[in-house]
Amino acid sequence: MDKKKVLIVTQEMDPYTNLSTISEIARKLPQYVQENGMEIRVLMPRFGTINERRHRLHEVVRLSGMNIIVDDDDFPLIIKVASLPEARMQVYFLDNEDFFKRKQVFKDENGEPFEDNPDRMVFFCKGVIETVKKFGWPPDIVHCHGWMTSLIPLYLKTAYKTEPLFQQSKVIYSIYDNDLQQAFSDQFAVKASINNLTESDLGAYQNGTGVNLNKGAVKYADAVVIGSENPPSGLSKLLDEQDKPVLKAPASEEDDYLSAYIEFYNTLLEEEVNP
Questions:
Q1: Domain of 191: which CATH number?
Q2: Which of 146, 130, 140 is nearest to 10 (CA)?
Q3: Nearest residue to 231 via CA among 244, 248, 217, 206
Q4: Could you tell me if 201 and 153 are in contact, meaning their C-beta atoms sit under 8 angstroms apart?
Q5: Can you give the residue range of the structural domain that contains 186?
Q6: Which residues pair with 81 in a beta bridge?
Q7: If we measure between CA atoms, which residue out of 54, 62, 69, 173 comes closest to residue 122?
Q8: 11, 105, 203, 211 — which has fewest CB within 10 A?
Q9: Global model pTM greater than 0.90
Q10: Where does the record place a coiled coil (predicted)?
């Protein structure tokens, strides 16, 4: 029997970035998944805070060379890779000078969110999908961690819905308590409308007063993980409205907390077999 394939897309991961609980989950979960008999790929942004020499990142020339269009401009996508020897695992990094060279991650030296965070998110989410297409690797599970990945459920279910590689993919969105959507302008829907999507296709990401990334991601995901002990306000109501499978992730101090993720994956994959 073929191994199930799990794509982990994350905005941060220890030891490369360590901003929140996402870093720890994104480091331990793929290794655990791999040790339990599944294939994994991990993709994340190559922020300028990541020391390429220390972590031995190098460019994957066969995957690089694409251009990603964001708001009618072309941005080259560079793919780099590093190995985590203790986990026998590779991590792929999406890089671009305009978006990721700076020496801060999401906020400037004054603590203000970068104005181009929406553009960076669009570039990253579209770049992830195009990179997986270049892999030629059809994931059974696509597990997205954090607000920066929140457009991937939408894109997979709309702009890329006819892409054969993702036809069987179950998309999981993990919600944490560290989003920056309050800094997003009303231009967000225009920027995020890729591949013939319209602003109205982004309607699920609007809440009447501004942008709500979790609302849109939950609508288009097949399942949701509540990854923080203090999730964003209004989440319970949102989940009740959508009626999706939900995993309330156990606290990371619990010895066997990672096994809950595997059980959740298997439940979703069984649904595919027994619709």
A1: 3.40.50.2000
A2: 146
A3: 248
A4: no
A5: 5-273
A6: 58, 92
A7: 69
A8: 203
A9: yes
A10: none
Distance (Å, whole) CA 232 – CA 215: 11
Side chain identity at residue 141, one-letter code: I
* Model pLDDT, residue 169: 95
Place of tokens 């965070």: 117
179-218: pLDDT as tens digits: 666 667 777 888 888 888 887 788 888 776 678 888 889 9
pLDDT band at 240 (very low <50, low <70, confident <90, very high): confident
